[in-house]
Design goal:
Elements lengths: L63 E2 L18 E2 L1 H13 L3 H13 L10 H10 L3 H14 L5 H13 L3 H10 L5 H13 L3 H14 L6 H14 L2 H14 L5 H13 L3 H12 L2 H4 L2 H13 L3 H13 L6 H14 L2 H14 L5 H13 L3 H10 L5 H13 L3 H15 L4 H14 L2 H13 L6 H13 L3 H10 L5 H13 L3 H13 L6 H14 L2 H13 L6 H13 L3 H10 L5 H13 L3 H13 L6 H14 L2 H13 L7 H13 L3 H9 L7 H14 L2 H14 L4 H14 L2 H13 L8 E6 L2 E6 L8 H17 L14
Antiparallel strand pairs: 1-2, 3-4
Helix pairs in contact: 1-2, 1-3, 2-3, 3-4, 3-5, 5-6, 5-7, 6-7, 7-8, 7-9, 8-9, 9-10, 9-11, 11-12, 11-14, 12-14, 14-15, 14-16, 15-16, 16-17, 16-18, 18-19, 18-20, 19-20, 20-21, 20-22, 21-22, 22-23, 22-24, 23-24, 24-25, 24-26, 25-26, 26-27, 26-28, 27-28, 28-29, 28-30, 29-30, 30-31, ...
Length: about 800
């Protein structure tokens, strides 16, 4: 038969004076706690609450009163000659075990005592026993002891009723607790405090305040510190500023405002309600009281409040004042200051705090280690963040989640996936927070294979229908260009929030599925989901892809109506969209009217000016950008180099290319080299362009070779063209566009054999060139034209107009360069 040993080893020392050292209650027996069947026992029958396979005496002789003529048989159970248990000793034992958190042992003592003929109706320690049952946090067992004291007739005692009430709240049994409270004929301050605290801890903060108000109305005894602490906590949780001020007034009136716990509660309440001045007044009143000025908790609450409200400089000043006052900071203080460093990105202060932790011996605290990891990651020093994690001996779920999530957020997605793998090897399945981080990592890397594994893991853990995990899955599939799977996951979600809608719309937009994106947006509107800045940014991206000016203006008007004109993200999107739709003037107006600009704002307008040929205005704006304290990045220089290429400014292009490397320590990427090769090729410096490609530290792609091939054709360099073509076809053997370009070039040079060879290769490989497509918006209608297609209902009129324009151009003296117009066949 299975046996259960409930006695905690730590309890042996505590009640060694209760037991014979040769018989330390170590016999194994199966314990059955009070069964619901005992509710029906009559009071005249003593319930036998224990069934045992081996009954051994667990008490010394001092706990029993025996007739001299009667002998106990401890090794064989108890008969009619069983000893009588000393009630006061049993009660004292139960109280000490309960006070030390050994709840199961306390209950066992009571149950075993009943076997020894214990007179339950003489027991006076039921509140302690009830507290032990509450410590088990088991609703069913709580109801059993409730029924037990009812049957024994002890429930009329208010002390017992309050104990049962507290037990139900401890077990999270809200319904039974409320029912019991409402049926109580008599209530004292303990009853009310238990209810106020219990309702608050259950998360019903408004309900807690209502009970507090009801107590004030019904009770002649005024609320004490415990009542007010729970009420202030409720006010802080729901930002009930008016109620909080009323409680503050009551505390001042009754003199309780000098209590250090209530001072902390008041400061926290005011900080949560964003009333900084009131919090400061309460805090300053504390400084005048020598007895509580050294209380670090009050300083911590004040510092944390400053940080949570964004008053970072005030928080740092108060921390320094705390140190100068000789008050020793604790782990909560240091966590708040490290959060401050994370928010302000002040790594220098963070490093100073890191050093200070060693002097206080707090560097091994798990909360502080986790905060240090967060601080280093958010300040851009992921190396030190990972170092602290690797050296820590306190790895827990929170720390693992922090390091994995921050690895993704700081641009180390591959490291995040590696650490997730390490966690699973050591601990098993991850939680939903780690899965979210892993899915974001897969999105960043466009790593579909790993994303599929994470999806399978989410299904296995039954969290794939979670709204956050589901939204991350949609985003991951969208980034991996699998919109079919993204669509499937999205519509299987039981509930779809704005984030998941945005993920689907953004995925369609990024994969150029503009029709599906617009349809999804309309369905989202039909479900009464209001778009936010991210939604609108995706729609503007669609406008930029289609160059649809009318839709862009409609969205712009919507943003003005909704009060989004101050949003930096949307203004940046509007600048880019208007420039791509051909209206650089609107882009310029938006840029000039922006109250706040970031690096993306400057890059967007610089790129727009370059696209529209406003080269010198772009150069001037670049100088303004530097004067405004904004640091150019790789995107800025891509725009500058591209503009130099189209304007044929070779010297200016070299100037910016060297400045990027020497002045801003930016390593040129493939796109920068492509711009330079295009610039040199357009200007006829073909050999210099070829040498630049060969000297690149990064691997050239087919685009950079294709740019040089086009320049070779334009400048008639047949020999270099063949060399460049070989490089291209090694990178992309199935490239139809470059093979057509090479064929046309051979035709230009009169090399018909080579022309037929290339065309035969194209035919043998089954390659087909995608026909060119263009569109134009006229009177709010988009007209699409595909090369060689005459299905448009106005085709005859259009081509007639083109023929007339061509004749007019010839009469004006224009002679077309027909050598550059070749067949794509």
């Amino acid at each position: 038969m299975e046996t259960v040993g409930l006695l905690h080893s730590n309890s042996l020392h505590m009640y060694s004076h209760y037991k014979d050292q040769n018989n330390l209650f170590m016999s194994s027996y199966k314990v059955t706690l009070i069964s619901p069947s005992y509710y029906g026992l009559c009071s005249t029958k003593k319930p036998s609450l224990v069934s045992s396979t081996s009954q051994k005496n667990c008490f010394t002789s001092s706990h029993f009163e025996q007739n001299p003529s009667q002998k106990s048989k401890p090794e064989h159970g108890f008969s009619s000659n069983s000893p009588v248990v000393d009630v006061s000793s049993v009660g004292k034992m139960i109280r000490e075990l309960t006070d030390n958190g050994l709840f199961e042992d306390a209950i066992r003592v009571y149950l075993k005592s009943l076997e020894y003929g214990f007179q339950a109706d003489e027991f006076k320690f039921f509140p302690c026993l009830i507290k032990a049952f509450g410590g088990l946090c088991d609703v069913e067992k709580a109801r059993q002891i409730h029924g037990h004291v009812l049957k024994l007739g002890f429930f009329d005692d208010l002390y017992v009723q309050n104990s049962v009430l507290g037990m139900y709240w401890k077990c999270g049994n809200v319904k039974d607790a409320i029912q019991l409270f409402e049926k109580m004929c008599e209530r004292d301050l303990v009853s009310w405090n238990t209810m106020i605290s219990g309702v608050c801890q259950s998360g019903n903060y408004l309900g807690s305040l209502m009970i507090f108000r009801r107590m004030m109305d019904e009770l002649v005894v005024y609320p004490n510190r415990i009542s007010c602490l729970s009420a202030l906590a409720s006010c802080a949780s729901i930002e009930a500023f008016i109620y909080g001020r009323e409680i503050h007034g009551y505390l001042v009136k009754t003199g309780l405002d000098a209590d250090e716990f209530l001072i902390s509660g008041l400061i926290e309440m005011y900080m949560k309600c964003a009333d900084i001045r009131s919090a400061q007044r309460v805090f300053k009143s504390m400084l005048d009281k020598e007895s509580i000025r050294a209380n670090a908790v009050i300083w911590n609450v004040m510092i944390t409040g400053y940080v949570s409200n964004g008053y970072l400089s005030l928080a740092l000043e108060l921390f320094l004042e705390m140190l100068n006052s000789g008050i020793r900071p604790d782990s909560s203080t240091m966590v708040a200051i490290l959060v401050l460093c994370s928010q302000s990105l002040n790594i220098e202060v963070g490093k100073s705090i890191h050093g200070l932790l060693f002097s206080y011996g707090l560097h091994t605290d798990v909360r502080i280690e986790t905060s240090l990891i967060e601080m280093y990651f958010k300040c851009g020093d992921h190396v030190n963040g990972l170092k602290i994690f690797s050296q820590s001996k306190n790895h827990n779920l929170v720390m693992w989640s922090a390091v994995i999530s921050n690895s993704v957020n700081t641009g180390c997605p591959a490291k995040a996936l590696e650490m997730l793998q390490d966690y699973m090897l050591e601990y098993g399945f991850p939680d939903s927070i780690m899965l979210l981080a892993a899915l974001r990592a897969c999105s960043s890397l466009a790593l579909k294979s790993k994303g599929l594994q994470i999806h399978g893991l989410a299904v296995k853990l039954a969290v794939d229908s979670d709204i956050f995990v589901g939204g991350a899955l949609v985003d991951m599939y969208g980034k991996c260009k699998d919109m079919k799977s993204a669509h499937k996951v999205f519509w299987k979600l039981p509930f779809r929030d704005l984030i998941s809608w945005n993920a689907l719309i953004s995925g369609y937009s990024q994969n150029e599925c503009v029709d599906e994106a617009l349809k999804t947006f309309r369905v989202m509107q039909s479900e009464q989901i209001r778009p936010n800045a991210v939604t609108v940014a995706s729609l503007l991206s669609i406008c930029a892809q289609l160059s649809v000016m009318n839709l862009c203006k409609e969205i712009h008007c919507y943003l003005l109506r909704q009060g989004f004109e101050q949003n930096v993200l949307l203004n940046n999107s509007l600048i880019a969209t208007y420039s791509k739709c051909g209206d650089i003037n609107c882009s310029w107006t938006i840029f000039k009217n922006m109250p706040e600009r970031n690096e993306v704002s400057w890059n967007s307008i610089i790129l727009g000016l370059g696209m529209h040929g406003h080269t010198y205005e772009m150069f001037d704006l670049f100088e303004e950008m530097k004067e405004a304290g904004k640091k150019p990045d790789g995107i800025t220089f891509t725009s500058l180099l591209s503009a130099c290429s189209h304007a044929g400014m070779v010297q200016m292009g070299w100037k910016y290319f060297k400045s990027m490397v020497e002045d801003y320590k930016l390593e040129p990427q493939v796109e920068h080299y492509t711009c330079m090769v295009d610039l040199l090729g357009r200007a006829g410096h073909l050999n210099e362009a070829y040498d630049l490609i060969m000297a690149m530290p990064c691997v050239p792609d087919d685009r950079i070779w294709g740019s040089l091939l086009g320049s070779c054709r334009n400048h008639g360099n047949e020999k270099l063209a063949e060399l460049v073509a070989n490089h291209i076809f090694k990178l992309d053997p199935t490239s139809i566009g470059y093979r057509v370009l090479l064929a046309n070039m051979f035709e230009d040079f009169g090399r018909l054999n080579e022309l037929f060879r290339v065309r035969s290769e194209i035919k043998d490989m089954g390659l087909k060139k995608q026909p060119g497509c263009s569109w134009i918006e006229v009177n709010n209608n988009i007209h699409i034209f595909v090369a060689g297609d005459r299905t448009h209902h106005q085709s005859e009129d259009i081509y007639a107009a083109i023929e007339n324009l061509t004749l007019e151009m010839k009469r004006a003296g224009y002679v077309p360069h027909l050598e550059s117009v070749k067949s794509d066949s």
